[in-house]
Amino acid sequence: MLTNPRADRVRSVAALSRRSARERAGLFVAEGPQSVREAVRFRPEAIRDLYVTAEAGERHTEIVDAATAAGVHVHECTPEVLAAMSDTDAPQGLLAVCRVLTSTLADVLARRPRLLVVLAHVRDPGNAGTVLRGADAAGADAVIVSEASVDVFSPKVVRSTAGSLFHVPVVTGLPVPQILAELAGAGITRLAADGAGTRLLPEVDLTRPHAWVMGNEAWGLPQPLREACDEVVRVPIFGHAESLNLAMAATVCLYASALAQHPAG
Amino acid sequence: MLTNPRADRVRSVAALSRRSARERAGLFVAEGPQSVREAVRFRPEAIRDLYVTAEAGERHTEIVDAATAAGVHVHECTPEVLAAMSDTDAPQGLLAVCRVLTSTLADVLARRPRLLVVLAHVRDPGNAGTVLRGADAAGADAVIVSEASVDVFSPKVVRSTAGSLFHVPVVTGLPVPQILAELAGAGITRLAADGAGTRLLPEVDLTRPHAWVMGNEAWGLPQPLREACDEVVRVPIFGHAESLNLAMAATVCLYASALAQHPAG
């Protein structure tokens, strides 16, 4: 039973709210029942430690039992210890310290993916998390997050993925031109989603293997990157809105792809 | 030139960040170039006063010129006055005090709408704003926000609509059962969007006039309301995600409708 909120172990978990500490340790934190449940179900081998208060342990016995059965180190701690580790104002009594989960692009491509998303210089944690969740729902094979993007293992992104971070392979750290080149080499059509696009979404063949390339929330995709893609696709706007936001545009594109690739629904 | 941040006029604008003050005055605030531009373009008659700093007036001459041409009362003020009126930490030098813009359901139905959205007990301002923006982009004819929902004229909702609040008719304040009954009376199919749905989105006929009925972000649509709708429709989930969030689900449904109703894209 961990009772000292000032212990070194507690401080080192709290430090993982900073990107530099995450990168040094190769660890990140998933909090709350939904994220922890999905971590235990889908990636138990990635969980280094699971911290649980007595109250949360009673409320979520199925999560703790599944973690124990999967060989996860489960530690009981006081609410004060959990609060000291937590990034949120209202910690929910369950916190998993996980090894950073990334796949290589080579691994992703070796599995012959049909639907991918590339986030090029996406900076907002909520957008990145929402796109990851949408990619999961649409059955995407992986999400590729370019260098100079938000850290997908930051507490805000992890929270906003609602567990999808543990479902979908994530590739990080590569420059966009290299990503686009490797996708082309694997025969994957690169579709830039951009308001400047000349092709409209309903006109595009989405049955072939393809990747949606989404640009930064403020400035979109720079022209050289658009030109490096096979097609630049615009989500049609039927009303007076200037545009959709990044997460909505990505969701519309991903679902158009999913429905085209799974015609039976 | 307004220079006193403690003037009564300034305080009464600042007070509009509270729902009670908005309801008493029948006024709300739209801030920043994007919202103010769309207010001036689409609903200049609803703008009671436009406040502009000298710097913003120079940077956005086209907005100020259009406002003046439309007969809007434009007031120059100091940055201190604008900051005292503003709800944001980084005011952008343009602030419009607008008359609350609502339509009646009767007016909306008289225009023979083909695509509507009903927000039933939606509480989160970001979700409501994002759905409004998505409804605009998808060419929806109106957004109907039930009683006991977030106030769509709150600063956060106004901001997250990115101007769409001035494009799309909004109906507020009615109980959900009454909304559903009036839609049925007008021959509009009521489609509840819910994870408990038995029909899958791609199977539903979206060419007929219909309304998407979206429930609360936490508890969805209560069963009696689902049963009061004509069909309960589920967005298919192809991966391991439990669900889409409200704004994403609404966007996917609205775009499916828009693409079905505008087959040429």
From TrEMBL, chains A, B:
Residues 29-104 form the RNA 2-O ribose methyltransferase substrate binding domain. Pfam families: MRM3-like_sub_bind, SpoU_methylase. GO terms for biological process: methylation; RNA processing. InterPro entries: Alpha/beta_knot_MTases, MRM3-like_sub_bind, Ribosomal_eL30-like_sf, rRNA_Methyltransferase, SpoU_MeTrfase, SpoU_subst-bd, tRNA_m1G_MTases_N. The keyword DNA damage does not apply. It comes from the Bacteria. Keywords: Methyltransferase, Transferase. One of its GO terms (cellular component) is cytoplasm. One of its GO terms (molecular function) is RNA methyltransferase activity. Belongs to the class IV-like SAM-binding methyltransferase superfamily. RNA methyltransferase TrmH family. PANTHER family: RRNA METHYLTRANSFERASE 3, RRNA METHYLTRANSFERASE 3, MITOCHONDRIAL. This is RNA methyltransferase.
